[in-house]
Write a structure and sequence with these properties.
Distance between the termini: 42 Å
Helix content: under 10%
Number of strands: 17
Oligomer: single chain
Number of helices: 0
Structural class: mainly beta
Order of helices and strands: EEEEEEEEEEEEEEEEE
Radius of gyration: 18 Å
């Protein structure tokens, strides 16, 4: 695992992963870069865990990048887009990227932008990930949003057929 700090007001990109696969990056800080905090170009099977990206033009830009896993990512106050996913030309370009336990907020243009050209973006998964706005450009885009929570009940509830959650619905 790599701890990476890319903290500079004069850098063009904080972290560039270019034609590179199977990297693991942890504890990345990329602030105030002229372009992207993280740039992935035709790169797959990368893991980026615990990243703080703020004040970049774009937080994360993925160009034909597939099967990457992002977890515990905080993208704050990007000038343009928080996440810009550019896909096309079919699998694997732009497919099966996953964000989990992340927050994208305060982006100038849109928190998430999905653009497909001559192809598709399939199965971009947002698991327990929040964002304020999303824009699409293209016809073949599939975004999966999932939120999970744990419900704890008392021992007394175990003896009943269901559990009442606020009186709206019985599970």
């Amino acid at each position: 695992m790599n701890d990476v700090t890319a903290n500079s007001a004069t850098a063009y990109r904080g972290l560039r992963i270019y034609y590179s696969n199977n990297n693991t990056i942890t504890n990345l800080v990329a602030n105030s870069n002229d372009d992207q905090g993280i740039y992935l170009y035709q790169s797959s099977y990368n893991v980026i865990d615990h990243a703080k990206l703020s004040g970049n033009n774009q937080g994360i830009y993925m160009y034909y990048a597939a099967r990457n896993n992002f977890s515990n990512i905080n993208i704050i106050s990007s000038e343009g887009y928080g996440i810009y996913a550019h896909g096309g030309w079919g699998d694997p370009y732009g497919n099966n990227n996953r964000f989990s336990d992340s927050v994208i907020t305060g982006s100038g243009t849109s928190d998430v932008y999905l653009y497909e050209s001559s192809g598709q973006i399939y199965n971009l998964t947002m698991l327990n990930t929040t964002y304020g706005s999303i824009d699409f450009n293209g016809d073949e885009i599939v975004l999966l949003r999932k939120y999970y929570c744990l419900l704890y009940t008392s021992d007394a509830a175990d003896e009943l057929d269901g559990v009442d959650l606020g009186g709206r619905r019985i599970i």
